[in-house]
């Protein structure tokens, strides 16, 4: 394995292969390529960093990589799935999205719902079968703990769990808290 060269063509193939399968932020693609280069040839990886930076810069300039588009799509997807705003910020940070770009993407959620975190909590309850969606017996402490681990405040978790039926959750999601 040692002594293998990491050329520009190989890095391009790795980058395009990754982008063909996954959406990515600029920093995430850089990390993926560096990690791949290290695995492929630990001795040649330090020299490949300059080429990786050049590829990433070229992809950004051509529009193939766009952190704001990536962040917007990721925020929408995670919010629909029921992730809290805190969890969404953390996931974007883990992918290397700049804080300002993440904040802009998250602020776009305010147009869709009066309280985006409350709407996400309703989706979370639906997905995890909590509150009025539960099938078994009620265990309020366990359900509150699940909401807390997901990054929701006690106020929001309590509001969702206080709903008596599914229609009440849908109204809460649509109208927000009073």
What percentage of amino acids are in beta strands?
Answer: under 5%
Q: What characterizes the major β-sheet?
A: none
Radius of gyration: 21 Å
Shape: elongated
What's the helical proportion of residues?
Answer: 55-70%
Number of domains: 3
Q: Low-confidence spans: pLDDT under 50, at least 5 residues?
A: none
Total DSSP helices: 10
The CA-CA distance between the termini, in Å, is 64 Å
Number of strands: 0
Order of helices and strands: HHHHHHHHHH
* Helix and strand composition category: mainly alpha
Mean pLDDT: 92
Task: Summarize, please.
The protein is mostly helical and 178 residues long. It is built from ten helices and no strands. Helix 4 packs across helix 6 and helix 5 runs antiparallel to helix 6.
Describe this structure in words.
By secondary structure, the chain is an all-alpha fold. The protein has three domains: 8-62; 67-111; 116-175, no CATH class. Helices cover 69% and strands 0% of the residues. It is built from ten helices and no strands. The protein has helices spanning 8-21, 26-40, 45-62, 67-81, 85-94, 99-107, 116-128, 140-149, 154-161, 166-175. Helix 7 runs antiparallel to helix 10. The radius of gyration is 21 Å and the shape is elongated. The model has no long low-confidence stretch (mean pLDDT 92).
């Amino acid at each position: 394995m040692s002594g293998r060269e990491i050329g520009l063509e190989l890095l391009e193939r790795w980058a395009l292969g990754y982008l063909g399968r996954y959406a990515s932020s600029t920093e995430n693609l850089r990390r993926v390529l560096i990690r791949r280069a290290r695995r492929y040839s630990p001795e040649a990886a330090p020299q490949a960093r300059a080429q990786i930076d050049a590829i990433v810069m070229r992809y950004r300039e051509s529009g193939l990589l766009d952190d704001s588009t990536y962040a917007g799509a990721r925020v929408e997807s995670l919010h629909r799935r029921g992730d809290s705003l805190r969890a969404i910020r953390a996931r974007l940070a883990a992918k290397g999205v700049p804080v300002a770009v993440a904040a802009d993407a998250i602020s776009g959620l305010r147009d869709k719902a009066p309280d985006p975190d409350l709407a996400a909590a309703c989706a979370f309850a639906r997905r995890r079968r909590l509150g009025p969606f539960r099938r078994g017996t009620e265990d309020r402490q366990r359900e509150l703990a699940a909401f807390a681990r997901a990054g929701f405040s006690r106020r929001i978790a309590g509001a969702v769990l206080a709903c008596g039926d599914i229609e009440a959750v849908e109204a809460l999601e649509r109208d927000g808290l009073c």
